[in-house]
Every structure is written in structure tokens, then in C-alpha cells.
Design goal:
Length: 111
């Protein structure tokens, strides 16, 4: 049986198996700065200030401190002594506001 010359049909860059090609990212990853309401949520999270979040579905208010957030959710540690944070989808929020001052650093320690 005659062997075919594989170099006749080879295309540039495809002469190696796929898993042996060098990795080249399409673009450099740069974290984006928070904008708009996300910037406000970020400031509230970093300051540890108490906040009131009103849910659009029921009108109920949740009071606590923002402990985490991402593109779609906000996690709030409630002031009622609960051990675990409540995760709220951002699209379910009607309003949010700071309701008190952020805790200050203890005396003798830098802020």
C-alpha cells in the first residue's frame, strides 16, 4: 500500500496535533474598575457600613452589611444574628441605601 505525503495537504500552523500548539491568549485580561451602582456597592462592602436593601418582589427590607458581591448577586450578613449571609439577586432589588456610619478603626490602630 502506498503512503500519502501528508506535507502536500498541510496548512501552516496545523502541522502539529492540536494539543501541542503553543497557547496564545486572544487578549490580556485586565480587571475592570467598578462603575455606577456597582461602585457604590463596592464602597459599602469595603466600609462595612450597615445598609437597607428593599426587595422589589415583596417590598420587604433586609438590613445588614454587604459581605460579598459579584456581577449578579449581593450577599448580606443580616443584623438579626444569623450565621450565614443572605444571597440576593441584583435584579430583585428595588432600592438600597446606607443607614448608618461605617465602623471606625479601634483607637491606636491605623485605618
Amino acid at each position: 500500500m502506498q503512503q500519502r505525503d501528508s506535507t502536500l495537504h498541510a496548512r501552516p500552523g496545523f502541522d502539529r496535533p492540536r494539543n501541542e500548539r503553543p497557547f496564545s491568549p486572544r487578549r490580556d485580561f485586565k480587571p475592570r474598575a467598578a462603575k455606577g451602582h456597582d461602585a457604590l456597592l463596592k464602597d459599602l462592602q469595603e466600609s462595612g457600613a450597615p445598609v437597607r436593601l428593599v426587595l422589589s418582589t415583596s417590598g420587604n427590607a433586609v438590613i445588614g452589611k454587604i459581605v460579598a458581591r459579584d456581577k449578579f448577586t449581593v450577599s448580606v450578613l443580616r443584623d438579626d444574628g444569623s450565621e450565614f449571609p443572605l444571597v440576593i439577586y441584583k435584579h430583585a432589588l428595588e432600592t438600597f441605601e446606607q443607614i448608618g456610619k461605617a465602623p471606625s478603626a479601634p483607637q491606636g490602630q491605623p485605618e
